[in-house]
Amino acid sequence: MIYETPFVIYTHLCDRHYRLSLPSTAQLFQEVAELHSNSVGAGFRPLLEQGKAWVLTKASYRYLSRYPQLDEEVKLQTWSRGSDTLIATRDCRIVSKMGEILVAITSEWVMMDLTKRRVCRHNEEVKLYSIDEDCALDIDSPKLVMPNDMECVDNYLCPVEYSAIDKAQHVNNAEYLRWFENLLPSEWLESGPLSVDLNYLREMRPDDPSHQINAKIIEGDNREAWFQATTPRGVSVNCHMTFRK
C-alpha cells in the first residue's frame, strides 16, 4: 500500500532559486518515511521504547521533469517494497498536483540496536507494513565504488556541530548533503541536480573527535562529483552526484 500525504514546499525548504533544495529533498523523504512508520505503529517512539531505531544505509534520488517550487502544493508518497529481515527497501515520490513525478527515490534501511549501536533484525516490525512491489526507479540503490584520486577538501579537527546530530544520536543523513552541497561550483547548483546516490556506511557520532571530507569534482562535459566523509574510525558516507548542464 502506498502512503500519501499532501505537503507545501515552504520557504525554509528552498534554495536561492526558489526550488526545493538538495538537503530538503532528503528531509522530506525522511519525514514521509517517519509518518508512514508512525501510521503502522513502527515509528520512532514505539521503537525507542524497545531501544531500536530505523537507520538509512542507502539512498538514490532522481530529479525528473522539473524541481518542486516555492509554495507549490505536492503529494509525498512512500511505500515498503519488502525486507529480508535485515535490509528493508523503501521507495518514495514527490508528485505535483497534476500528477507529474518530480522526484523519485529508492532506499535501504536497517534496524539499529541503540544500546549496542549495532544492526539487529526486524522480523516483527516489518510485518506491520503492507508491501507494494511498485518501483519508484528502475534500479536499486547502488554500492558506490569511489575514485582512488580523491583529495581532502575540508578537515575539521573538532567534533561535529550540535545542530548536525539527530534524535538517533548521530549526524543526520540530510546534513551530509548540506556539507557536500557547499563545496560544489555555484553554477552547478544553479542548474540543479540530476541524480544523487549515497551509501551510509558508519555512524558519525557526537563523540568523534574530528572528521574530514574528501572529494573529486569533475567539470566539463559531464558534471559529476564524488564525496566521502570520514572520521578516525573509518568512512561514514560515500556519495556520487550528477548535475544538469
Description:
The protein has 245 residues and is an alpha+beta fold. Helices cover 16% and strands 38% of the residues. Strands 1, 2, 3, 4, 5, 6, 7, 8, 9, 10 and 11 form an 11-stranded antiparallel β-sheet that branches. Helix 1 packs antiparallel against helix 3 (173-181). The longest helix has 19 residues, at 22-40. It is globular and about 45 Å long.
Comma- or semicolon-separated keywords:
245 residues; alpha+beta; 11-stranded antiparallel β-sheet; 4 helices; 11 strands; 38% strand
Overall 3D shape: globular
Largest sheet: 11 strands, antiparallel
Indicate the proportion of strand residues: 35-45%
Alpha-carbon distance between the two ends: 37 Å
* Number of E-type strands: 11
Oligomer: single chain
The SS-based structural class is alpha+beta
Number of helices: 4
Low-pLDDT windows of residues: none
Rg from C-alpha positions? Answer: 18 Å
Instruction: Classify the helix fraction into a percent range.
Output: 10-25%
The helix/strand series, from N terminus to C terminus, equals EHHEEEEEEHHEEEE
Mean pLDDT: 95
